[in-house]
Design a protein that fits this description.
By secondary structure, the chain is mainly alpha-helical. It is about 60% helix and about 5% strand. It starts with 10 loop residues before the first strand and ends in a 6-residue tail after the last helix.
Length: about 300
C-alpha cells in the first residue's frame, strides 16, 4: 500500500455534514519542539562535559586540540536525543510508542540507498581531493574488502549508536517540524543537530587543530545539508526512522573509514576532510539535485 508523509500539506476541516468549509495548515507545536531540544541538549552535554576534560578551556583556546582524545564512553552522549524523545512521548506530548519507528516492511530500496549513497559520496570526495592534488589515498590492501567491512560496521555497531540520535531527530523532532514545509523543517533540524555536537567539536572532533568557532561554523552547514537529504529520504520512505538511522550509520562508518584514517591523508582539515569545504560542496550539489528532482516530479508518494 502506498504511504504518504507530507504533513506540511494543507488539510481540510469538515463539519458534520461532510462539506469542506475551510483549509488549515497543521501547526508546529513549538512547546514540544523546545521541550525536546532542551532535554536532548541537557542529556548529551552533561555526559560530554563530564567525560571530556577542559571543554570550557578549549572554547577560549586559539585552536582545537590536535587530536580528539575523549574516552570511548563518550558515545553514551549520542543517546541524548533518543532519551529525550522517550521522555517527551511518555510524559509530555504523550504520543506513546506505537509505530514510532515508522514502516519497516517493503522499504528495501530505501535501506539500499541509505547504505550505498554515503560510500559513493565519500568516494567522490576522495576522487576530487586527489584530483586537485589536495590529498592522496592509500588503500593499504583490498579496497573491496575494506568497503565490505565498513558496510558491515554501518549495519551493526555504528547503526546502534546512530539510533541514539535518529530516534530523536527523525523519530520525534522532524515530524514536529514538517508543518513548516520539508525544506524549512530540514534546515531547522539540521541546525539543532549540528549545534548539539559543539562540545565535541571544540574538543577536537572532526576538526583538530583549527579555531573552535571555525569548527562549529563548518560543521553546522554540513549537518544542514545532510538534514535536507535525511528529510527527503525519510519522507519518500514513508517516515521510516530505521532508514534514516542506516543513512546516519553509513555516513559515520564510511566517513571515518575512508575520510579520516591513514588511508586517506588530507593536506588541510578544512578543505578535504569529510566535513571540509569540498565535502560541503558535494553535499550541496547532491541536495540541489535531489530537491530539483522533487520539484520536477512533485510527489512524495512511495511505491
Amino acid at each position: 500500500m502506498a504511504t504518504l508523509v507530507d504533513v506540511s500539506a494543507e488539510t481540510s476541516q469538515k463539519p458534520s455534514d461532510g462539506k469542506v468549509t475551510s483549509l488549515e495548515r497543521p501547526r508546529v507545536k513549538w512547546a514540544h519542539v523546545v521541550g525536546f531540544v532542551t532535554l536532548a541538549y541537557a542529556i548529551s552535554w552533561s555526559v560530554w562535559i563530564a567525560l571530556v576534560p577542559h571543554i570550557a578551556r578549549y572554547l577560549h583556546a586559539a585552536r582545537t586540540p590536535s587530536k580528539f582524545t575523549a574516552p570511548g564512553s563518550i558515545v553514551i552522549g549520542m543517546f541524548g536525543p533518543a532519551v529525550a524523545a522517550v521522555i517527551m512521548r511518555a510524559f509530555v506530548s504523550k504520543e506513546g510508542f506505537r509505530k514510532s519507528l515508522g514502516p519497516i516492511r517493503h522499504r528495501g530500496k530505501y535501506f539500499a540507498i541509505a547504505l550505498v549513497a554515503p560510500a559513493l559520496t565519500f568516494a567522490l570526495l576522495i576522487d576530487v581531493s586527489v584530483g586537485l592534488h589536495l590529498a592522496h589515498f592509500h588503500s593499504n590492501g583490498n579496497i573491496v574488502a575494506l568497503v565490505m567491512v565498513l558496510a558491515f560496521n554501518a549495519l551493526t555497531f555504528t547503526m546502534l549508536f546512530a539510533f541514539g540520535e535518529e530516534y530523536g531527530w527523525r523519530g520525534y523532532l522532524l515530524p514536529k517540524l514538517l508543518p513548516l514545509g520539508e525544506v524549512r523543517a530540514g534546515v531547522v533540524a539540521g541546525v539543532i543537530w549540528g549545534l548539539l555536537h559543539a562540545p565535541l567539536l571544540i574538543a577536537g572532533l572532526n576538526y583538530p587543530g583549527v579555531n573552535p568557532w571555525v569548527a562549529i561554523a563548518m560543521f553546522v552547514p554540513t549537518t544542514v545539508l545532510m538534514s535536507l537529504l535525511f528529510t527527503r529520504l525519510y519522507v519518500v520512505a514513508g517516515g521510516a526512522v530505521l532508514v534514516a538511522t542506516l543513512l546516519h550509520a553509513s555516513l559515520n562508518a564510511f566517513g571515518d573509514g575512508l575520510g579520516t584514517h591513514k588511508r586517506f591523508v588530507t593536506h588541510h582539515t578544512l578543505l578535504t576532510s569529510p566535513g571540509g569545504a569540498i565535502a560541503i560542496g558535494i553535499f550541496a550539489l547532491i541536495t540541489v539535485t535531489v530537491y530539483a528532482l522533487r520539484a520536477r516530479h512533485g510527489s512524495t508518494r512511495t511505491k
